[in-house]
Amino acid sequence: MNRFSHKHSGRSPLKGLLIPLCSFIAAMAALLYGLSSISDVTASEQKKSLEAALSRSIMDCYSTEGAYPENLDYIEEHYPLYYDKDRFYISYQPIGSNIMPVVTVIDKKP
Asked: I need a surface site. Which of 1, 25, 53, 54 has the fewest CB within 10 A?
């Protein structure tokens, strides 16, 4: 009996690759799903942080100057407010000098 001679069992060489290939595809799909959910959480946290910074800057202006800022440009010029303008849009609607303005932060890239 020759132990180095192989009897051809009729199995295709692709059948041996099927399980590792499926495992690789499943692992890559899980990785991409995890990365996208991390990205969503990060964007949400950035928005919350920007809303808090805006509120803080508006209140700082009111407590220092006795009136709410007239527009967003005034806040950016006189108070430390930096944000990604390509990522977020800020709607700033002043109501009066002694009434807090309506501020809405919109994420441009959902």
From this structure: 1
